[in-house]
Structure formats: C-alpha cells, structure tokens
UniProtKB/TrEMBL annotation, chains A, B:
Coiled coil: none annotated. Residues 95-179 form the RCK C-terminal domain. PANTHER family: K(+)_H(+) ANTIPORTER SUBUNIT KHTT. This is PhoU family transcriptional regulator. It comes from the Archaea.
C-alpha cells in the first residue's frame, strides 16, 4: 500500500505541474481525484499497520510505515495545492510557466501522427522511458484522458501524449510522435 | 527562485528515498542541509514577490508565486520527514525497502570500474538521462559526496553513482558502470 501511495503521489506532482504549465483544469481535477485515492489508501494502511502491531505486540514497524505514509500523503497534499492554483482561475505569468517547463526535468506534450512508430504499440513494447528518458504520464484520447498509463496501454494515432523527461530528450520525443524520427 | 526551489525539492525527495533504501545517514543529512537552502530561498522569494507587488500595485502575481513556493516548500518538508526515519536509527523492514527500490521508478547504485565508458566523461557529454532514462542524483567519490551533480560533473573510476530511472534501465546502467556494456 505504501508503494501504491508513493507511485500515486509522484504521478500527482507530475500532473499538478502539467496542469499548471498547460493551464488545464481536467488535469488539475485528476490531481484532486487521485488525492481521494491516496487518502483512502492512507487510512487503510494505518489500520492494517496498527492491527498488525497489536497482533505481533511490536510497535516499531507500524510507526515507520505510518510515518512514511504521512510524509507521502503530505507530498500529495502539496500537489493538490499546486493544482488548486489552476482550478482557481489564476494564471501564472507565462515566463514562470516557460521556466517550469524547461527546468531540469521538462514536461511536454505532442500529438501522435499517422506514420509515427509509436502508434499501435504498448508503452511496455516501446520502452520509451529507458530508451529516451521520456515518461508518458497521461494520454488524451478524443474526449477522455488516460492518467498514469501502464505498460499495457496502447498508443494510437491522434493521441496527445503528456511526457516528462530530460530537456535533451524533448526534440526526439516530438519527432517520434510526428513520425519524423523512425527509430527510438 | 521558484525553479531553483522546485529542482532542489525534487532532488530532496529522490535523496530521501535513497537514504531510506540504502540506510545511509550521510544522504539523509544532505536532505536536511538542502532544507535550509530551500527555506532561505523561500523567504527571499516571498520578500521579492511582495516588494514587487507594492511596486506594481498588483497582488495577483505575488499570491501565485507564494502559493506555489509554499507547496514546494511542503514537499521538501516531507522529504526531511522521510530522511528523519533514517536519522532516528529506525530501520524499515527489508521487504518494504526492496519494494520501494523496485517501484515504477527505481533507485540504484553502482561503482564505476576501470574500462567503463562513463569514466572521464561529464554527465553533459554522456546524456545518460536521455539515452538510458537513468538520472544520476548523487556521486560518492572517496570520502565525499557530490549531491545533485550538474552536466559539468565528470565521472571518475571508483565513483559510486546513485541513479534513479525506469526499472528496465537498471541492468544496462550497471553494465555501463562495470564496463560490460561499451555503448550507451
């Protein structure tokens, strides 16, 4: 459960910055939705940890688990605060957004065009993260979103991919999506 | 200043998990040290934002900046809390550590051996992040550490590299460090 919380909280932070950069309320709403999932898991984890402590008559493991979970929960709260900036209709200065976009780790988006080698392949098959450094954190397909896609998620022509990765990987990523680059 | 805070807070979270996984107090101490830098920048940012608000007679940009900085500061506080688990001499269950190590984004370490193609190259020359997905977040060289290395940091034989990246990239990373893989 702790790992699940860790993974969701990391996705939330990435999505919160994405919502900010692209001034996108749908992404910001997803951050709030994920917060509910985090809270749910957090309470279940506390319960399980304490029950086990009673069973084993040992408080130490429960304490560590709860302490770590509390820290992760606090990270997810911060992600919600960042998302709230977007939901409150306050648009930060464009210069600020550009610099967030181009900080050490960049966030970018690109549409998958006809002829792209990414089309009709799963993220697992493509190994984008280990081959290019770019992590797909969300996909917009028509009117709906796939947030936190898994290795089984298939990319389709027309998808808009939201990805995070090193600034040096951004051009190649765009060229893979457009079909200009034929090799990963 | 906000981007600086964002970058430091991300490094802090990565280092906090690393300190936990490798039960390493030196890394945990660095997280606490970085927190001081974050706090310093945070206060300077608040001051600058408010002074500018007075100058321009406009509160909105200052409010957004301070709100974002507060969220980022809260993330760094959470990183300190995770690091404190290590500093308080409480060692989490090995199974927990293994699963953190192997969650979506893995954290690993490897020593650079004689014959490794990484040796005597800067991180900027190597483009490790965009070529392999692996980010070097810290380097242990002899008795000292380089935390948050830059593109100008040169890798040397004997260095222990702490890196974060997709689980699929870990083997290749180890082989690059050991000298087994001769191509990035």
């Amino acid at each position: 459960m702790l790992i699940q919380m860790k993974n969701i909280s990391e996705l939330m932070v990435d999505l919160a910055y994405s919502a900010l950069i692209f001034n996108n309320k749908e992404i910001a709403e997803e951050v709030k939705y994920l917060e509910e999932k985090i809270d749910e898991t957090y309470y279940k984890l506390q319960e399980a940890a304490i029950e086990r402590a009673i069973e084993e008559e040992n408080s130490a493991p429960a304490l560590i688990l709860i302490r770590l979970a509390t820290s992760i929960e606090a990270i997810s709260d911060s992600a919600v605060e960042i998302a709230n900036v977007v939901l409150r209709d306050i648009e930060p200065h464009p210069v600020l957004l550009e610099s967030i976009k181009e900080s050490d780790i960049s966030i970018t988006r690109a549409r998958v065009r006809e002829g792209s080698i990414l089309a009709n392949k799963t993220l697992g098959e493509l190994n984008l993260a280990s081959e290019t450094g770019m992590w797909v954190i969300a996909i917009k397909r028509g009117n709906y979103w796939i947030f936190g896609p898994t290795e089984n998620t298939m990319i389709k022509v027309g998808d808009i991919l939201l990805a995070k990765g090193p600034i040096e990987g951004v051009n190649h990523f765009h060229n893979l999506c457009s079909g200009k680059d034929k090799k990963i």
